[in-house]
Here is the input.
Amino acid sequence: MAKLSTKQHSATHRIIIYGGPKTGKSLIAGKLAEFYKIIWFDLEKGHETLFELPAAWQDNIELIELPDTRSYPIAIETCLKVIKGKPVDICEQHGKVGCMLCKKEEKEFTHVDLDSLDNNTVVVFDSLTQLTNSAIAHITKSQPDDYKLTYDDWGNLGKLMDIFLSHVQQAGYNVIVISHEQEVETEGKKNTLVPVGGTRNFSRNVAKYFDHVIYAEKKNKKHVFASQTTYSNTILTGSRTNAVMEGLENEEATLLPIFKPELYKSKSEKGKEVAPINSKPNTPGGKAANILKNLKK
Here is the structure.
């Protein structure tokens, strides 16, 4: 039986970033390309935002486009095969794993093997909202357009989303999932914003699959982000490592408080540097920060 004291903090992160449209969700994830290789699964043609990044950072992003539609729900099929970790080859034209048509015509494929990834790679799925739509389209693909989902259909949707998210939860590599917001009734009959991840009932519990739940919104014409559980009584947020995203509206938005807290430094109103956010005194990064702070006194 292993004691907790013998365990170490995970070197990887599983994050969900959610909020309304055009609140900077994709861009803040893309900025990690300054430090990491990124495998970006684009389910809704949202990668245009990433062209704002410097060219050198763009070179670190491998884009896999999944042309998901109501009549061609390829996203749920491909993402489920990918997330299970076995090596797969995805055709660039259709976004399909092992596409026989593209093999026959000798078209381009992208090889993906998530279980072989190291800590220097981040996998992004953009977005969970579209993946949910794809799962619904997959379940009802033989039905007419005006078909209404039955109780069993909603149950099958929950099963598909749980398969995907449970693999995200246990992933040994860095994962960012982007989603949108919806209001649900939580405990105490309180209306709360949560990430879209299936039915309203299922979405209530989507956060449990992630280490960090980050909310994105616009305030005073700036994109701002929140990660602390105390941020709002009506917005679901939280971080298992107590990473702090709040307050970044006065600085360049970044995920470094989570990924590289030893590199991220906030500044006080007087411009004096303070210890990195989320640095822990018993970690190498925390010790280094404290030594540097003492030397500057």
